[in-house]
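Quick look at the format.
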Amino acid sequence: MAFNETVTRRLEQWASSLQDLGPVILGQNKDVKIEEIRESYISKMAEHPVVEDVRVETIDMGGVPGTLITPATVMGDRVLFYIHGGAYIVGGPGGYHGLAAAFAVAMKARVYLPDYRLAPENPFPVPIEDTYAAYRWLIEEGQDPRSVTFAGDSAGGAMVVSVMVMARNAGLPLPAGGAALSPWANLEHTGPSMFNREGLDRLNTKAGLDLMARTFLGQALPNSPEASPVFADVRGLPPILVQIGEAELMLSDAIRLASHLGENRVRVTLEVWPNMFHVWHMFQAELAEGREAIANAAAFLGRAIESTAKS
């Protein structure tokens, strides 16, 4: 599928912003610091336009830095807890104002984005624990969990499930539902698409994902349930939507996540989008498929809130 010039250019910039990450992680490039790569990555993502009539502010989420995006109209006390991606190594709320604002407007909800610590300085399970701590803060501040939903992309898509499991295990009330966008759900990378989509995926390679997984995991195994939710005990979780692009290396493992959820009596909806690349939602300003995917996710999460309110 051919994309317009703006989408193609931004995809190329997004991919190129991480071209030095491997050599830096492996110690092969001493001239570039990982902080510089992170800044470049966020700056490229921050080029995506932000819809008007939203307020963006930095906040403290119980010791975890965060960002709060508030649209002009909020329906009741609706909250979307959005978990950013970036392989647990890069990324941050600063690169997600455009996507989070689009969700805020679509859902008429305040959007909280925790800025969890990153690997390799803070490997597994620190990013997941930080994100859980931010959710715990939100509930302890008095937010009704029945009006909360989760969404996240890539590593954040996996954490949609992982943080719910952590909350359930701790006895913390669960949100009404979740949306996992292009989830990085299996760090073993055993799905067929890890091989037959190589070269079709515009942003990832299996070798690159393998390196980032090892960097994040430290001494943990890739099949650790907290890191790879396809191995987690997901019983009792609320409804979850999984959206994945057909051209992604992560396609098969996202489908496996949806199957795992369904087989464990979690109500799940799976959407596979032909020809779409990793987290195409980021390009919602230029790409009709991005806007439609966000609208679908917002509708799913809205219905989850309404269903919970009635129960």
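Next, a different chain entirely:
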Amino acid sequence: MTIFGDLALDGARRTVTLEREYATTTADLWSALTEPDRMTRWLGSYTTEGDGYRLEMGGGFPAVTGRVLACEPQRRIAVLWRFGSEAETELEATIAPHGDDHVVLTLTHRRAQAVNAAVWGAVWQGVFTHLDAELNGEQDLGDRGYLGEAADPAAFDAALEEYRRREAGLTPARMIRENGKSGVHLERLLDASIADVWDALTLPDRIGRWLWPVVEWPDDPARVRPLELGDTFRLGDANVPDGVHAMEVLALEPERLLSFTWGPARSAVTLRLDGQEAGTLLVLDQDAIPDVFGAGRLRSAPDFAAGWHSLVDGLTLLLEGLDAPRREGLWDAAYEVYAGQNAAE
């Protein structure tokens, strides 16, 4: 058995799969998964609502709602799973005997929203620990529920870092090196319409929430109109020497293409949009530039790739209406991926 589970692409979303072996019977594990009295001791308070259910997990977190899709006693249960305002996803648990006195539980969380999928991986790691305690007769969460208190906060933090690295590795950018300079090519399928993505790229109240904070905008102080061809604007970034990017729109085709200058070298960053059945494909190209000094050290290809990767992570969260714990860890996870690639070359 592996300690951590797996993440896989699911269109613009992700699938999270975890597996754990328990020293119990299929009947006992099935009881813990489906009987409300036992669920309350390791997961949360389960009640039915019409043809659906409601799960209160405590800790001031929103309730989970959904309905049962499939139920094969002591073998498999599948439910629709909607946590608060997140998009509806699907959760499936299967049980398989393993030897004479052990069973294997496989949990598959499908259609998890991108970037937050890593959070769910860490959450389910903790849930499995709570379940183990319940099966051993050691667990009683009372009114707190799982999310009210992690089984082991340090273990949760470590799991979140690991799942973030794994998710970053699913959609890596390509580092481009030419004539001693470094550029980036990144493609990401976003779970949003082209119109919504375009607004996030060009409106000041949205661009400042995923790229960098708006310092100066065309027609300031209004800061309401979208970017236009030839506009100059300034965004704050503590990682550059002056703390501000002075940027100019070089090319603009509504809902298709946006190109602007970036960094001290005023190189071009170009964003292209293409509608897909599963969402909007974003293609980002940063022209190759020399290494630059920032945040106290010289930065090169892995830094540029991790920077744009984590910024697009922020765009993804904005479009999905989500937040994520310790968002600064998104850059760290992406950097490990690109630094590893750099070392391997």
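The CA atoms of residues 122 and 158 lie 8 Å apart.

See the schema section for token definitions.
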